[in-house]
Design goal:
The protein is mainly α and 73 residues long. It has one domain. It has 3 helices and no strands. 0% of the residues are buried.
Length: 73
């Protein structure tokens, strides 16, 4: 595709801020050490929807869903 790809070093959380932030948001709904097997697909989709419709400061308080559709449509 001709796009640059970057890999974070192991155990260097400061190199992957977006992932760490997303993990923190997920942990608001699913506690650490809780198995995802204890959640139905319907519940996971509900959590996914809440996260995708949550405004983000990094996106000038737009939502990931809005930003996605700006670029796709």
């Amino acid at each position: 595709l001709g796009v640059p790809v970057y890999f974070a070093d192991p155990y260097c959380s400061w190199q992957k801020g977006a992932i760490e932030n997303t993990n923190k948001l997920i942990r608001q709904y699913i506690p650490k050490k809780e198995s995802f097997n204890n959640y139905t697909d319907k519940r996971i989709i509900s959590i996914q929807k809440k996260l995708n419709e949550r405004p983000r400061e990094k996106l000038n308080f737009s939502t990931p869903k809005q930003e996605f559709f700006k670029r796709v449509l």
